[in-house]
Amino acid sequence: MGIKSPIEIPGQPFQQLSEAKTLSPVEPPPGYGGEGWFATTLDAAVGLARKGSMWPLLYATSCCGIEFMATAAAHYDLGRFGMERFSNSPRQADLLMVMGTISKKLGPVLKQVYEQIAEPRWVLSVGACASSGGIFDTYSVLQGIDRVIPVDVYVPGCPPRPEQILDGILRVHYIAKHESLRHRDSKEYTSRLGHYGIE
Amino acid sequence: MMMEETLLTELRRVLGDRILSHEADDVPTIGIKADDLYEIVDALYKDEKLAFRFLTTLFGMHYPAEKGESERLGLQVLLYNMWTGQRLRLTLSFPIESPELRSITPIFPTANWMEREAYDFYGIRFAGHPNLKRILNIETMTAFPMRKDFPLEDLSRDDKDDRMFGR
């Protein structure tokens, strides 16, 4: 199993993300508005709600988790993006943030946590270890969490700075905001889960 | 470097000719036969004067075949006398084809996890162990990763091109 490329969202080329405007947390979706009213598509309205109140499940196992703590603290303030409520139960979580080295023994545990998260769910892989095994090319370490669960966004770095983690989170928000309501029923998505043996 | 004479005298009194070799390393060390492990640890525990009643650690070793020597596994046991502060290391080795030892868990219950670790990483089987299964590695693993013939890099990687690493 090789390392996969980031998923592609139909009609939304990956390069568009580099424009500051598309990552802006306050940019309204396309629609029509006037004094006291605004009309848009259901997709866009739901996407706006999803990305604006995402509950992350923190799966922090090493130094990337420390960087995340800095990200969540006052200086970088994750609360600006509607994410100050951390869900420590997978049942209520939307975003699984894997931060740190995952050993092979922990792989099935991580997969079970992922399976317990209700749809829609996203996965953010923070740091070199979670993304590829990092420097630990050895018998005990999982060579990237994408060997057990599908990943939406990878954040490189060893460990990444809080700005990079914020950038990764904003990319997840972008995916959530622009996701079609039918995406989770689509063949692409179910076959992607089936690739990992997840129903 | 010679071992302290009084300790060696006491060890000879208790163990007799079961001491194959002895040296004063950082810790006084005696070499023993693999089959004698249980009896020797038991005798050192029960003797009133030596009284090695604390097991500091226990770990496996692997000697790859080289220079006409056959491939062997080994074990080291570090004992401690809490009253006098005396330490003692037992070292033994045996052919890799029959990695079978008698468990010392009846004497030292703390050897339970240490023997599981030696089994996990070196494949040394301890007869009489109450729960001999892998302790640190994933249960589905079939290899013994601390043996010297086990490859350093992870076997599940397929993205590493040898030409990019100069080999």
Describe the structure.
The complex is a heterodimer of chains A (199) and B (167). By secondary structure, chain A is α/β, with parallel strands linked by helices. Chain A has a single domain, classed as 3-Layer(aba) Sandwich (Rossmann fold), CATH 3.40.50.12280. Helices cover 32% and strands 12% of the residues of chain A. Chain A has six helices and six strands. Chain A has a four-stranded parallel β-sheet. In chain A, helix 3 (107-116) links the parallel strand 4 (95-99) and strand 5. In chain A, helix 1 packs antiparallel against helix 5 and helix 2 crosses helix 5 (162-178). Chain B has 167 residues and is α/β, with parallel strands linked by helices. Chain B has a single domain, classed as 2-Layer Sandwich (Beta Polymerase, domain 2). In chain B, 20% of the residues lie in helices and 25% in strands. Chain B has helices at 5-15, 37-46, 111-122; strands at 21-24, 28-31, 54-63, 72-80, 87-95, 100-102, 125-127. In chain B, a hairpin with an 8-residue loop joins strand 3 and strand 4 (72-80). The longest helix of chain B is centred in the last third of the chain and has 12 residues, at 111-122. The radius of gyration of chain B is 19 Å and the shape is elongated. The mean pLDDT of chain B is 90. The A-B interface holds A 1-3, 103-105, 107, 133, 137-141, 143, 147 and B 136-138, 141, 143, 145, 150, 152-160.
Fold-level CATH name of chain A = Rossmann fold
Low-pLDDT windows of residues of chain A: 1-9, 11-20
The shape of chain B, in one word, is elongated
Please name the CATH architecture of chain A. Answer: 3-Layer(aba) Sandwich
Q: Radius of gyration of chain A in whole Å, from Cα?
A: 17 Å
Helical segment count of chain A:
6
Number of strands of chain A: 6
Task: Give a count of the beta strands of chain B, DSSP E runs of length 2 or more.
Answer: 7
Global morphology of chain A: globular
Name the average pLDDT of chain A.
Answer: 86
